[in-house]
Amino acid sequence: MTRKNVYSCQLNTGKQGTRKIELLAPAGNLEKAKTAIRYGADAVYIGGNRFSLRSRASNFSMEDIQELCQFAKEFGAKVHVTVNMLPHPDDFEGLKEYLLELDEAGIDAIIAASPAVLSLARSLDVGYELHVSTQHSTTNSKSIEFWKDQKMDRVVLARECTLEQVSAIAKKQILPIEAFIHGGMCISYSGRCVLSNHMTLRDANRGGCAQSCRWKYRVFDDPKSETPISPEHRLFSMSSRDLQAVDFVEEMINSGVSSLKIEGRMKSAYYIATVVSAYRRLIDEIYEKGFASDEFRKEIKMEIAKAENRPTGPGFFKGIPDRKVQLYRDHDETVTQEYVAEIIERIDDEKVLLRVRNKFTPFSHAEVFGPNIKPASIFIEEVYDEQGNPMEACSHPMQMVMARYDGPAPAFGMIRKRLGDDTTTGRNSDSKESD
Ligand code: SF4
């Protein structure tokens, strides 16, 4: 294939009027990838069903990848495929054919960690770009010069860099830089952890991480002792806070970072829609006005919080985080909002066709959000089943219902409710998986 560097590889200078920074979103399946693109992602990264981490994520078949590439093109979006397992000698069978098939499918980049994968792809003269995974823990510009010499097209920086380091590296404009701005963190250096291997014999670098760091432990200084070191922390977890970088995006744009990456290929479509649309608004505001005010950033943070299930923090952007910044004691993950319905279409001036995702009741407050609109409060009045019978509650996930409310009904929009506002206690049909 001769699409050499069809992916725009130019460096983002961060100046007004130049190409906008890329917002790169995760997707565990086709539905999530399309949602991410509809909600404002410039690119999505996905895992194929081979040679990728996140083996538990619902990975893409080659047919799915082809379909996604077609879909992305219609929106001017890009598709990156992770080929980021660290292969052992027995893992190479079919790799060459797989890399060529990805090229035929029309992807824009692979993200790989192993020099064996990267050099094989380079030797095949594929048309897509080669991006060096964060698993390489690239934390300085000398390393980026090395990757440039290896003819790589982009480097994903280590999550362990401070904002100052990210800016200084990006300003050197050696290669396009991708930096994480949101999502789960490893408690160890990303990609350099064998905790899961040790505890469960599941290899984190071959897609099997059991998230052993997030388990609850009792810590003893003497194996014979029956008293944990700190009784007030009887159950100790190394569960790290998620990264949230709303306050740092402006600096990253101005320093010339090329791509802002959201983590979470195993997250729900609702999570992806919420987080992507919030960062989309933030980036657009900064390009439009040259900055994002404190008030605007506060609004974006509140919006993101509607999707969170873990506490967030600045990660390493402000320096090495201490225990207070990085760990949260209460391991239980909480959500404040629930995704209750998917908007299918407006039927007439009054009624909207919805697909139920979680239980909700008529005559209750909710919020609509969707691609390219600001979230809006609504009051759902009567709800009818498909035969036109009034309903007392919508409790069957995937049931089609007609609701009466005064407010926007964007195609592919979502309706969410604050948990506890009424009797919304239904089972979540869009599962909230952990990272
Ligand atoms: S999620 Fe936890 S167990 Fe898994 S690789 Fe990261 S630090 Fe290790």
Automatic annotation (TrEMBL):
Keywords: Hydrolase, Protease. It holds the Pfam family Peptidase_U32_C. GO terms for molecular function: peptidase activity. Gene3D superfamilies: Translation factors. GO terms for biological process: proteolysis. InterPro entries: Peptidase_U32, Peptidase_U32_C, RNA/ubiquinone_mod_enzymes, rSAM_sf. Residues 336-416 form the Peptidase family U32 C-terminal domain. Belongs to the peptidase U32 family. This is Protease.
